[in-house]
């Protein structure tokens, strides 16, 4: 058995498999390659069987979404390290080597993310992960190389290996034992920010999360759910609140969640002023859903919560008021 499994979750993505899976097969000789299919109704399975015979297929009974789809599929994957890869990722030669070396040399590292560049504009970082992620005190996510919608050009500034707070689900390496210890992704999230929640739970158990700039992949982004889709707005705002409720230290829980609800309201007003009423309504729906999930999520809170989960108090203030549009350790 090989040490690492590259696992791609697919739902009606035959076109993406044809375009992006060849690079994974070509440059992943160290790994066993799997596709977990979320009950696709297109010809995905036929494409896999006819064009990629070396790829192992795991068939889920229905479309469980990202979180539970991986949870179900990974039950039967026994390699020591999981590499969860979006179906719209192009990988590069020797992309696995530096990450495998890092895992071998750093036994306390549970999760690793490579450098993620934009498939459509390969000179720049990609929105979903870029050079490794952090959150502020109120749970707003940002990355080295991407703060809100400002994306940096790759000039080698993040070619390092650095400890981060969260790794992108677009290309997410995790030890099998850690994934199982944490019971995988939280299925309540369905999709979006479940990887940040998993990283936060890992962080609370004192595991390390790293970014490895010596490994590079290219991400198309928005292939499953476009940024302009109100459903994405709903999931991002709802799941961010659920994540705070689960993982915040008790002494910060009430204050941070109340402030975050207020800031979400301001975001809703901003969407309305721009005529994006569907997104305003999506934020309202996200808050209603949050209240409906409140007691179930509270029951999922763990026993240990670290205080120093954030790098900066407010990325919103730093970005919109202080005009810090590029990542800096001075936050």
**Reported CATH architecture of the largest domain:** Alpha-Beta Complex
- Note the total helix count: 10
**Cα end-to-end separation:** 45 Å
- Largest sheet, if any? 9 strands, mixed
Order of helices and strands: EHEHEHEEHEEEEEEEHHEHHHH
Q: How many distinct folded domains?
A: 2
What is the CATH class of the largest domain?
A: Alpha Beta
Number of strands: 13
Indicate the percent of residues in helices: 25-40%
Quaternary state of the chains: single chain
The CATH fourth-level homologous superfamily of the largest domain:
Spore Coat Polysaccharide Biosynthesis Protein SpsA, Chain A
**Radius of gyration from the CA trace?**
19 Å
Question: Which shape, going by the Cα principal axes?
Answer: globular
Strand content: 15-25%
Q: What is the residue-mean pLDDT, rounded to a whole number?
A: 96
Identify low-pLDDT runs: none
| Structural class category | alpha/beta
What fold name goes in the CATH topology slot of the largest domain?
Answer: Spore Coat Polysaccharide Biosynthesis Protein SpsA, Chain A
Could you walk me through the main structural features you see in this protein, from its secondary elements to its overall organization?
The chain has helices at residues 14-26, 44-51, 65-74, 97-105, 176-181, 194-204, 230-247, 250-273, 277-298, 315-320, and strands at 4-10, 31-37, 56-59, 81-85, 89-91, 109-118, 133-135, 141-143, 146-147, 150-151, 161-163, 171-175, 208-219. The protein is of the alpha/beta class and 331 residues long. It has two domains: 4-219, Spore Coat Polysaccharide Biosynthesis Protein SpsA, Chain A (Alpha-Beta Complex), CATH 3.90.550.10; 230-320, no CATH class. Strands 1, 2, 3, 4, 5, 6, 11, 12 and 13 form a nine-stranded mixed sheet that branches. A hairpin with a 2-residue loop joins strand 9 and strand 10 (150-151). Helix 8 runs antiparallel to helix 9 (277-298). The N and C termini lie far apart (45 Å). The model has no long low-confidence stretch (mean pLDDT 96).
